[in-house]
Amino acid sequence: MSSEPKRILVIDDEPHILSVLALKLGNAGYEVLTAADGEEGYAAAVAEKPDLLITDFQMPFLSGLELCQRLKSTPGVGRMPAIMLTARGFGLTSEDLEGTNILAIVTKPFSPRELLTKVSKVLQESAVS
To answer: Fewest Cβ atoms closer than 10 Å to its Cβ: which of 29, 42, 99, 105?
Structure first.
């Protein structure tokens, strides 16, 4: 009996990034959900409870960091691991990451292969903990 594919929620306000990530992750065997901003992403994360969240840092309504902080304190999704996408030059400190489940940061522009490697690693790490 085969296991269910891991579900990944991708949140980014840039449609081309959403479509590229959805395609690459889908081709790698993941089930992909998408949202176009932080508020939509929060609602989708709570409703769908994906195995992993990939979120952009800079978004309207709710930044990726605010989204991850809010999810961390939400029952039922507080342990959901996240990967943060950030534009070059937007460094996040360890203080920024406190109170989140952000386990990896990927700087834009990124290679899809690099991101898939991080996705696999974060999913493995979060399955163990």
So the answer is: 29
- pLDDT one-digit tens code per residue, 19-44: 999 999 999 999 999 999 999 999 99
Q: What is the DSSP string of the chain?
A: -PPPPPEEEEE-S-HHHHHHHHHHHHHTT-EEEEESSHHHHHHHHHHH--SEEEEESS-SSS-HHHHHHHHHTSTTTTT--EEEEEETT----HHHHTTS-EEEEEEES--HHHHHHHHHHHHHHHHH-
What's the whole-model pTM score? 0.92
- Do the bridges between strand 52-56 and strand 82-87 make them parallel or antiparallel, or are there none, so unpaired? parallel
